[in-house]
Queue: 2 jobs
Job 1
Amino acid sequence: MGYTIAEKIMSAHLGGKAVASGDIIMPGVDMVFGNELGTALAIHGREEILKAGVYDRSRVAVIPDHFTPNRDVPSAELCAEVRRFAGEQGIEHYFEVGRLGIEHIILPEKGLINPGEIVVGADSHTCTGGALGALAIGTGSADFFYAMMAGEIWLRVPETVKVDLTGALPPYVTGKDVILELIGRIGIDGANYRILEFAGEGAGSLSMADRFSICNMAVEAGAKTAIFAPDDVTQAYIKPRAARPYHLYASDPDAVYRDTIHIDLTRLSPRLACPHNPGNVKPAGEVAEQRLAVDQVFIGSCTNGRIEDLRLAAELLRGRKAAPGVRLIIIPGSREVYAAALDEGLIKVFIEAQATVGPPCCGPCIGGHMGVLASGERCVSTTNRNFRGRMGSMESEVYLSGAAVAAASAVAGYIALPEGVM
Amino acid sequence: MGGELRFQGRAFVFEDNIDTDAIFPANWLILTDEKEIASHCMEEIDPDFHRKAKPGDILLAGANFGCGSSREHAPLAIRGCGISCVVAKSFSRLFYRNAVNIGLPVITADTASLAAEGDEVAVDCVTGEISIRKANAAAGAVVKLAGEPLPEFMLEILRSSGLYGYLEKRLKLEGRI
């Protein structure tokens, strides 16, 4: 009986020992990271244990990105505590404001997540790293702390669901629409405890940006993580970046899957997750017919804050303006993305479209700062969650989309398809 | 509280798909003190929850409890309110592991559809046995059901007061602290 890519990675981290779903294992980890919130909760009051020192300071990254630049005094104090900790422990990959961006965007950029690795992150969207063929597991603070101190993580070996992709995406349809389509089909607990493996000839047609967006939202279906087997697209991305030697794994032809789901990329159209959960997915065209007025549009986040997303937004915003009454907020996901957007003239396009462009951080995605919603307001957002109150008031509404529908909606002033404003 | 990993208390009942933003709003993620964290528990559903919950009470929930974020504040908030154990029809994996990791017992069983707030619930995390004594029924009306017991490794983490305690033991054994 063959292994899936995830099982091969787990087995390799146990010295080649056999693994079977349901086993509880404790493999070594290649990289551990946390943002300021998960890190602070892990280290607070644990000075005694921290005296042991982290297991490998070149394998730990700390990235304050959620409420930074500090939104208020409590978040400033929290960041100060995390900064002191990183300094005392000699953490090599500490990304201060101005050097950083969103954890799930900068770690791949810096080559700190590589194919075949086991990566632990104290943030649910750690699954983003699966786009590179790594087993990237999102955890809370305790697992992060354990992995950071002991270099290992306990895992219950999950079953894998194969998502078989065929065809190629039409214009204005992106990885975001693929993952929304999937969550809409299987529901927000449809992949609970399982790994989603994206495969098939359609997978090879997807850009790294599409793959990152897809893996990013696997957790919204409850998945432990998601993974793409590394191919030429992965290699082209990772080769100039990889901070360490890496291993390429692929699933065996006779690997065992819990289930197989087919998605035909060619026939996919833009999707929207409607209030108030990411599984409430409808074709964007159907929602657009209702001409629902929007108050705010946010383009950014670990889901869609990459240069490809900004290019798509700029294509629709070039020579146009956000409709009166719409607050358009655009946040490049990292310093690298910001610099590329500047070089390509995208920032100028955004400013001329009357957008406000924010510093690389999570922005309004978690209702923390930089665009919190008031009661009765509606937002189209390229983020990953739209639970009640997620981006502000309990009486606000969030529609999740890709960058194209978000930009089109900003121009139209109501939820619109890209074709509606071209 | 009964014997080892056995609990008895009044029930609080929640529906399906209670997400982590509902259990603990993101705005308060800057908190690290368990008592302060607990004061915001469930505040988007019932702002008085942290006052109503008494030490030993048991939280019963429907499917996919704790879906959403990886925030460990969610189980911490529940534990901080005095809740001794959470029983849900199913858990989101992140909430489940975070609960075990902080030493909050969790067990999978469909009790939320059988119980009402105030019912007396007894849970044995080792055997999986659960009983519900209805508060509004004739004395002696008890519903018994079998929950899914926790694997031995998770019980060991719970016995170590969570993964932090488990780590401390390990580092001591290794002579690192």
Job 2
Amino acid sequence: MRRVIMDTIFIVILFLLQSTVFKWLSLANISPNLMIVITASCGFMKGKTEGLLVGFFSGLLIDIFYGDIIGFYALIYMVTGYVNGFFNTIFYDEDVKFPMILIAASELAFGLIVYVFRFLLRNRLDFVYYLIHIILPELLYTIVITIVLYRVILAISRFVDGLGKRGEGQVAE
Amino acid sequence: MNNKKRFSLPPKYILFILAIFCLGAMFVTFATKVSVAPIKNVVGYVIVPMQKGINKVGGWFGDKTLEFKTLEEVKKENKDLQAQIADLKVENSKLLQERYELDRLRQLFELDEKYTGYEKVAARIIAKDTGNWFNTFIVDKGEKNGIKKDMNVIDGSGLVGIVVETGDNWARIRSIIDDSSNVSSMVLSTQDLCMVKGNLELMSDNTIEFEKLVDSDNNVAVGEQVVTSNVSGKYLEGILIGYITEIKEDSNQITKSGYISPAVDFEHLSEVLIIKNLKEQPHTEE
């Protein structure tokens, strides 16, 4: 229950930040993709179920607000969270490199999928341009933000888990 | 530990069920054009006030902690804010004065006299598209303020875009530099029609492209004004889009295409005007 509340708050806050604050902080018109960070993090930190649920609701929020087709982003984010869940078994808290690689890979896959479905299908063929000007800058910026954001997510997540355990312990006694 | 086992539905089934849901939703919204406005409205009531809030405190979200500050600190801040209000009032009256001056100057130059006659609503941009692929934004005025879909959006200098979606207290606007934007337009001096299209590749250069310009007499030159056309289905006639910066003949030898520098500075857009007059047209298919 605590985790549900925490994830909900995370999703809403990151969505708000992404649509407002980070649009002002954008470099060369590129802003980072915070939703992919929280989705991927939940995936490898807590497993497939939580990853896919967080992804689903993050995507749905974007769909509802900015999407022309409901379900498109929800599906992408959900699969991202699910796939990251596979790495839960080999995930180790303290190492920041591994999460960053996963988040970067998720972000790259996300960019490619959006390009294929929203641009390539409309006959925008200049892939290299989109790769250099949108996908890679977004990837870089997201990774930089991840260095900070991942630690925050990890710390809060641990704190909430800690609360939960203490609560359970008291009930058990 | 035990209560974790209560909902032990394997993740792949959840994934499967939700994926079906997503595909279903995509199909429904894409194929049947069923309105999802009610859902959007409900979510809008939760999210938009928050986005507005974030914007009001100047983007520094840390101001949320204000609530936890002691009353005295708040009082002190209140005083500061009062002073700021006084400052702003002075500034506001100055701006008002300047606006009158601008109006006078506009009359003098007979600039855009066509669209000063429309009834307009000023709206503040409170959020932008979360991704980097498209260029849409949300403003803080919605159906309650009389905003409807397909209303034209301008700023002081020219066409910004069009309202594509509305909620009770918000509206989503697609700018003309958005990759999926198409505007039927014409060259002001010769009245030749063309299509103005946004393009993501050009967005960073702050230009848009036009195509299908029929100009058999070779009268159109660089620097000409391009405005919305009289045959456009959704855009009111004669709103300035921008100036031609480059023009070249297409391979079919009939039409021309090229680039336009928009009149609006999309980088620094914070407030827009929404024209409340809709283009009247017989109801046909889109």
